[in-house]
Amino acid sequence: INRVKPNDELLYQTERYHHDTFGYELPLSGDGEYVLILKFCEVYFNAPNMKVFDVVLNNRHMVVTDLDIFSLVGRGTAHDEYVYFTVSRGRLYFKEEDSEIRGGKVKLEFLKGYKDNPKINAIVLIKGYDESSLPRLSPQASEQQQIPEPLGDLQNNGAASASTGSPSSADGDAQTDAKSKNRKTSGPKQPNPYSLDES
Question: Largest Cα–Cα distance in the chain?
Answer without folding.
Answer: 76
